[in-house]
TrEMBL record:
Top-rank taxon, per record: Bacteria
SUPFAM superfamilies: Ribbon-helix-helix, TTHA1013/TTHA0281-like
Domain (HicB-like antitoxin of toxin-antitoxin system): residue spans on this chain: 17-78
Signal sequence coordinates: none
Protein name: Type II toxin-antitoxin system HicB family antitoxin
Residues annotated as transmembrane: none
PANTHER family found in the cross-reference section: ANTITOXIN HICB, UPF0150 PROTEIN SSL0259
Gene source species: Faecalibacterium butyricigenerans
């Protein structure tokens, strides 16, 4: 049987989103049902989330509730092929060159930025 420290050492995915209705930020662990907290700032939400995860795991162990393992990323390689118009390819290459980074890094930045905007 795993201990609290065993579960705390696992990499559970945390999500932090802006709460546009109440203000502040909401943090949760999708793999731990009901493990959710909030904070006025992202930093506060992060700190509170770590405390909430520990409390959630402690309660689950005390109550003999099954604790799910973190969702695995093994099914994802981190790569995909993308075809795009030549004009967009050129624009991305030029922008990445101006930023002094590879086009791959620039595209990852753009995708992550857009994903964060639409996460809520």
């Amino acid at each position: 049987m795993k201990t609290l420290n065993d579960y705390l050492a696992l990499s559970y995915r945390m999500e932090i989103i802006r709460d546009s209705d109440e203000g502040g930020f909401v943090a949760s662990y999708p793999d731990l049902p009901g493990c959710i907290t909030c904070g006025e700032t992202e930093e506060e939400a992060l700190k509170n989330a770590l405390d909430a995860k520990k409390a959630w795991l402690e309660a689950a162990l005390e109550e003999n509730i099954e604790i799910p393992e973190p969702d695995s990323l093994e099914a994802y390689s981190g790569q995909f092929k993308l075809r795009l118009p030549r004009s967009l390819h050129r624009a991305l290459a030029e922008h990445s060159q101006r930023e002094g980074i590879s086009m791959n890094q620039y595209c990852v930045y753009l995708l992550a930025k857009n994903d964060a905007l639409h996460a809520g």
